[in-house]
């Protein structure tokens, strides 16, 4: 009986399920990557891939061959027959014709499935990406399924393991992340014996590197090891799939605790190995991992070669899926441990030291410090082993900084001067310790000119002191052995002081550089903080980046629409088609590209994305050429500035959004007040009409004639009122929607006044209306219908708010370059402080019993302003209100 | 009663038809009703009406086309019915040959008055040499205008303007019609000529030119000389 599931039975966590579903949904939308995975060349990956593809073609699938190397093998070649083959792109490089996958053609053709052999292939120079796997990523992003082939030795994290087994270092590697991204990995496997037979029969095509080392590579033992490696790698994947499935099904907990792996990276070549080991450990633990580099604030100098290698290591770590962290601190161990604690790291990987114990004694051992301070963090020490590749850069001492010639002159002159002074002093009074004077000179030289000149000064000082002051004088011979100690001291002081001074100066320089960087960042962020528009922010960004790197910069944005230049510095800088293409690529992929990067390195510009949490919103293009590419540090700086700009742009954008939203809210508010006003004003006349009409219709109670006609009169009146209201509403709507375009004609004001008075004849009945138009008024260039509406509304307004039979005056004259028309009444005047508000929509004067939606005056204002005129409400002398319309008079009358 | 004039009403709104049917019937007109432009043209041919009331907003074609079609073979007076704010349509219809217009909503008295004017113009084109409007007398033969018995001196243009309006008294005339009649067909765009000269004319013949009683402005359309 299993009617009710037991409460103790593990149930799938809804969050996990949800994640799973969304991942599956993404996977469904996302293009699929299938990798045919083998342990060595010749196992039949390409053959198998084509076989599978043919089956799909037979099922009418849209399959295109992007790049498949058949190496002239008949059986493989036969399989490509009848498949659509994408023409290759021809590139010329140093006189050689090279053929490459035509990525743009593939993207344009957009087949369902593209076959692309050799995932680890390195593209010919001039291609968009330097590696084929980058092409694959782009194809997948474009929604094209890709089948590809890969050998185990090309997997980044297995690279050095393979090298250890076979003795062949493979340079073409594929990051593990792409292997993980693969939706399916099919192992293509044959027995090593069979592979060896095929090799003997010449059925295996070998890439150059392996061909050279063929005897080493294709040994039975090696093949067995590689095969095991390939099988294990595939099994690991299967494992992951199974685990995911188990998780989905709610089968127990999969992992005991959240592990975090941290690899301590340095410039030493062994660090690469350490990184791969870290990646393997992290993959094995299914844990996130990070690669951490601490820039020591202590003086140990780094050579340019070291710096380059360090950047390579960090890049490698990134490509292997590590989070790269750069720290700075006086104590490397402290910085590492502090970060490890903060990031909840459970395991740290540190390289095994290669230097002697003596070194540790002298400078302190990083490993010791880390282990001692690690607490509950496991520290794994990985052999930072022998370096098989001789590394020239490493054996070279860090290049000393060059002192200028003047420094050397200073170093030479100072001891001479000192000697002169010392001789002078000795003439005056016998001072015993004149060597102190030399010491002063040496220290001064060290501080002022650096280590080299200091050593020179020390040497010269020793010589001069010996020659002039050490008996026997005027010879270099030394009678008293004590003086030898003095010489050593002088040398030592020169060396130490020089080193210290150089160190201080370098730190100072670094501090200045850092200061400049933070300064640039600070200046940009301060300026961005006060920008109110996207264009302003883009302009600041372009200017700051251009001045920071001393090269023209262009900011391109793509909110909603296509990517378009938004700002440039110097103003007027433009991008040509090639650089625009780079920018476009960056905007689509959110990764830097262009000069000095892996993608489109041939471009004249380097482009960094403006990334926000919702994706790239634009690109900063820095037109470096003909300057050299940016250093890794500078590129980091560019990306930091770009990130800063992106968040500012996002902020401005969101602010604009918020403004639009508040405007919408206001409009909404207005609409609801309109609704309430309108519903009242529409319903009142409707109610009167309905009431009167139904009374008349009621045949059961015949009405006396007088009442009948009264009711009929009210129907007519109310209908008129309704008509006016609807007219006003329509006018207002037209005004607000901007659809109101005055159709200007030359009109005498007189005609407008006359027509308006005629229209209101009934309403103004019995009122004295005095019209006084100044003689010789010019013609107005206005829309006669609209301007008449203004007069009608003003007159109606006057009639509505003033006692019946009180007079209304219309008065017009020319004041400067305007015709001023006053509509004046003797009513209660404008309510206190409401001279502005009377022109607001739905504002109604305080008089009781006055009907209307409060639209008449706003309509007047709208119309008058559309004609370039003004309208104001004023108190009239002697009581009442004046509405004054001033309209511009065209300079040229017709 | 059955011998009254035949009126063709082309209107798609049933409520409008009902109200017009009731009021016209009570005043002895015989009403023929059409709800589409096509039907309207057909009924105009078969019933030969004396007045056509034409709604400008028909479902199948605009009233302008109906006007043009009717004018191909008939001089029947056409009164156009349209809503406020569509002045351009009215002007177009009038220029295309319609005789008058009424802005919806309109009262039945207004409608009857316009129909009377239209019928009268159709019956007897203004050929009388002497016309009288209130205290204004116009002798078309002698080209003399008297106001309260006193001769008013008009410029030739003002005279032609007044004469044209007077001959079509009660009927609306568009700016374009007045221009081509008084100034000739070349001046059709200079509507301010009409306005300026009309203002001058008003000063000479109206008691209060700012509140004209004789020559009325039809906003956005043209002018009309008030009858009687």
Question: Key terms for this structure?
Answer:
heterodimer, A: 894 residues, alpha/beta, five-stranded parallel sheet, B: 228 residues, four-stranded antiparallel sheet, 8 helices, globular
Overall description:
The complex is a heterodimer of chains A (894) and B (228). Chain A has 894 residues and is an alpha/beta fold. Chain A contains 28 helices and 25 strands. A 6-stranded parallel sheet of chain A has the order 3-2-6-7-1-8, sandwiched between helices. In chain A, α13 links the parallel β10 (289-296) and β11 (323-329). In chain A, α2 packs parallel to α3, α18 (405-428) packs antiparallel against α19 and α27 runs antiparallel to α28 (856-866). Chain A is flat. Chain A starts with 13 loop residues before the first helix and ends in a 6-residue tail after the last strand. Residues 1-9, 250-257 and 385-400 of chain A have low confidence and may be disordered. By secondary structure, chain B is α/β, with parallel strands linked by helices. In chain B, α2 runs parallel beside α3 and α6 (156-167) packs across α8 (191-205). Chain B is globular, with a radius of gyration of 18 Å. Classes of the chains: A alpha/beta (894), B alpha/beta (228). The interface between A and B is medium-sized, with 26 and 22 residues.
